[in-house]
């Protein structure tokens, strides 16, 4: 049994947002096969309790969540994405909820969430710092952020290309910042960085290839 938002909300998206949402799964297909699917499985297998995902997009994470979560809430502010997400959720046997919410303003009380998931979202939000503060607010003490993000390259040469092509890439990829040093932003927020692995997103353009995956915990458990 799943609850989802009505399909009519797609009307509020721009034309390119609707095209991008339609292209999203095909564009990522090769990368998912080449290792991203396995990374999602590894990361999301660590989710527990009341779990909230930020910017769920078309729902590529959905198959990888454990069956025994207390609650699974997928948030997505972009209507064109949310319609596709709602469609996937409808075919899922678990009680999953889809909410229209931005990561900067989550509709949850302080300290009421066990796991927050962010995959390929901290690159797209306008500024990750308010989002990281909001994640810390909703997490209970001991609660965890699970993240999987593409980031600024450690190679100066590739980082220069990421800077040069940041603006056209942002326009193409609906606000994505390919040159963002997201790990440094997670390091400097109030959460404790427990685990981070760096790898490459094979099957995708070099601009978005450098990846980080890991966990950060809210102290005070
Ligand atoms: C690159 S997609 C990632 C989708 C999905 N998380 C995945 O792993 O495939 C970025 C997503 O972040 C969403 N997004 C953009 N701004 C956001 C915000 N301020 N708060 C939450 N999500 C946002 C976009 O609508 C889009 O669905």
Average of pLDDT: 94
The helical percent reads 25-40%
Report low-confidence residues grouped into runs of 5 or more: 1-10
Q: What is the radius of gyration? A: 16 Å
Shape type: globular
Helix/strand class: alpha/beta
Q: What do you see in this structure?
A:
The longest helix has 30 residues. This protein starts with 14 loop residues before the first helix and ends with a strand. With 221 residues, it is α/β, with parallel strands linked by helices. It contains 6 helices and 7 strands, in the order H-E-E-H-E-E-H-E-H-H-H-E-E. Helix 2 links the parallel strand 2 and strand 3. The N terminus is likely disordered. The protein has a 7-stranded mixed β-sheet with strand order 3-2-1-4-5-7-6. S-adenosylmethionine (SAM) binds next to loops.
List keywords for this structure.
disordered N terminus; 221 residues; 34% helix; alpha/beta; binds S-adenosylmethionine
SSE topology:
Layout: H1 15-44, E1 50-53, E2 71-75, H2 79-90, E3 96-99, E4 113-119, H3 128-138, E5 139-150, H4 156-164, H5 166-172, H6 182-187, E6 192-200, E7 210-217
Parallel strand pairs: 1-2, 1-4, 2-3, 4-5
Antiparallel strand pairs: 5-7, 6-7
The structure holds S-adenosylmethionine.
S-adenosylmethionine is lined by residues 54-57, 60-61, 76-78, 81, 102-104, 119-121, 124-125, 175-176.
